[in-house]
Predict the 3D structure of the following.
Amino acid sequence: MTPVREMPGTAGAAWTIARKDLMVELRTRVAFLAAAVFAVLAAAIFFYAWDPTAVSALDLAPGVLWVIFTFSGLLALNRSFGAELTDRAIDALLVAPISREAVFLGKALANLIFVLGVLVVTVPAVVLFYNVSMSWSAVAALAGVVVLAAVGLVSVGTLFSAMAVNTRLAELLLPTIALPFLVPVVTSAAQATVLVMGGRPGSGVWEWIKLLTAFDLVFVAACTLAYPFTIER
Amino acid sequence: MGATSNVGVAGHGAGGAGGGAGAPARDESAPPGRDRAPTSAPRPFGALFWTAVAAVGVTYVRALAFTPVEALQGPAQKIFYLHAPAAFTALYLAFALMAISSVLYLWLRDPKLDRVAACSAEVGLAFTTVVLITGPLWAKPVWGTWWSGDARLTATLFLWLIILGYLVMRQAVEDRELRARYSAVLAILAGLLVPFIHLTVYLFRTLHPQPIVLKPSAPSMPAEMAVTFALAFVAFALLFVALLRARYRLALAAEAREEADGSGGPN
């Protein structure tokens, strides 16, 4: 460490913030355990809610996977800015000589890694429960869909989490305002998963992936630009 | 909603205007000029409102009694004189106004713009509710099912939920300036979301073909019908302006009362 530090650029500052969040999570592991346990429990409950011998498992698995993704994601996002309220830690972030966009991108990056970590538990759990067999290329395609969907969820989710913690309803508000925004994400991801798991990828999958990618591009940009408006002063 | 008390939070006194819109009605619809309020009791429903009501009345008399019955759909088609103008008003007047005034708010920071956005959201919600009720009412006799999962119907439902979320959020923020900024951000993002929802439900339907249902293409219609439609659109636009103005005045009165109550309001 040099005694005189350069001001970090946006990317550097974002990475520092993301690393801080991940380190807190790594040391406590509270949220990750809660979200991972929730995901496995939900998979088990869905397994008994619909008899997979009566309804084709391939019809159920994608829906189950993305419903769990949505709710475990919201669980994770709630915590993102809630943690910054303790001792007004958010004020320290905001007075730091870095751009507000960097604060948003850092929080979003930490959330993205967190959500992907939960998905690493969820996807195998669902694949196992529903006995889905996939080729390696299908696994790679599913991984791509998972990353795109996680980026979409995290972009709007991080922004709304930052807003929700300052309202009277706090974490109750997040699903109310975020869920409509997740409709394109979850629908595209689930439909692409149906095609990938069913072993019939084709132009259909590309349509959904294009939609997901467009959503990611628009909302990552829009939410990053909108974040400074939510914290002014 | 247990979390919201009935303290005067300006901008959500769902008055008679938005009433029945699914927006939670609350006390402010009662005359807000209790003794303490310095303003005189507002008169939200002026001549404009009654003119609009009369225009809507004339439209339906004409639609029911003096416009021919559609050959294929029978009397069920009459509901379009309510459904179509309500949809048009909600989408192209209320929500467009809401989005535009939200963008302008972030730029100009005029509280009037925030008030306009909130009021058009509420009135728009009322019109969208009409659309969502009349749609299935028409679909049952013509399509044979209340809810077909039709792309436009689904997209409208999601739009309705977004507006509801917007209004719920407004109630959850006490600081006026903060509420205005949050609302503007949410409204702008919602504007970006609408094309994605349309694309999603469209792709969803085309990839999963449904049993063929009768879709109302726009056939050339007899002049009597066209005139009735035109009349209905004008009447609804007028009604929108009247309700928006009424709701705006109620919001102003609620704010005035909030100020008269002193620094009141929960902390």
Notes: The mean pLDDT of chain A is 88. The radius of gyration of chain A is 19 Å. The helical segments of chain A are 10-28, 30-49, 57-85, 89-95, 100-129, 136-164, 173-197, 203-231. Chain A touches chain B at residues 156, 159, 163, 166-169, 172-173, 176-177, 179-181, 183-184, 187-188, 191, 204, 207-208, 211, 214-215, 218-219, 222-223, 226, 229-230, 232 (CB under 8 Å).
